[in-house]
Specification:
It is a single chain. This protein is an all-alpha fold. It has one domain. It is about 55% helix and about 0% strand. Helix 3 packs across helix 7 and helix 5 packs antiparallel against helix 7.
C-alpha cells in the first residue's frame, strides 16, 4: 500500500510539473490581407460559418478553450492545429497559387459533403461548430461557385 501511495504521489508531481511547460499559441491580433474572407469578400453568412466551424484549426488565430491550458491537452491541441494549418490555412489562402486554391476549394466542398470536416472529435466538444444541412449546402455551393470562377 505504501508503494501505491508513492507511485500516486509521483504521478501527481509529474502532472503538476507539466503545467509549467507551456505551449505555443496560435493567435494574431491582425487579419492578414491574404485571409480567405478578405480575399474573396465572402458573404456574412459564409464567413460566420467558416469562423465558427473552421478557423480555430485552419487559420492563424485560434480561440482557445479553457482546457487548452491544461497539459498534456494543450500539446495535443497544438499538434492538431499545426497539422490543420499545414493542410489548409485560411489566413494565407490568398497567397496560394490559383491551382492550389481550386484544389483546396474542391477538397473543402468534398470533405464537408462527406461529413469529414469539421472533425467529429472537434464538434463533440464544440457543438456550435457542427454544420447544419443548410450551412453545409451554403458552404459547398459557395466553394464550388468560387472554384468555377477561378478557371
Amino acid at each position: 500500500m505504501k508503494t501505491l501511495k508513492r507511485i500516486g504521489l509521483a504521478i501527481l508531481v509529474v502532472l503538476v510539473g507539466l503545467q509549467f511547460i507551456s505551449t505555443r499559441t496560435n493567435q494574431s491580433s491582425e487579419v492578414s490581407s491574404t485571409d480567405f474572407i478578405l480575399t474573396y469578400k465572402v458573404p456574412d453568412e459564409v464567413g460566420r460559418a467558416l469562423h465558427t466551424s473552421c478557423y480555430n484549426c485552419h487559420s492563424n488565430n485560434t480561440n482557445y478553450p479553457w482546457y487548452s491550458y491544461v497539459q498534456p491537452v494543450g500539446w495535443f491541441l497544438e499538434q492538431h492545429i499545426d497539422k490543420g494549418k499545414a493542410e489548409l490555412n485560411f489566413s494565407e489562402f490568398g497567397s496560394y497559387s490559383v491551382r492550389k486554391q481550386r484544389s483546396k476549394l474542391s477538397s473543402m466542398a468534398s470533405q464537408i459533403e462527406k461529413d469529414e470536416m469539421p472533425l467529429s472529435s472537434y464538434t463533440l466538444i464544440h457543438r456550435d461548430a457542427r454544420l447544419t444541412p443548410k450551412s453545409k449546402k451554403l458552404l459547398v455551393d459557395y466553394f464550388n461557385a468560387l472554384q468555377d470562377s477561378l478557371r
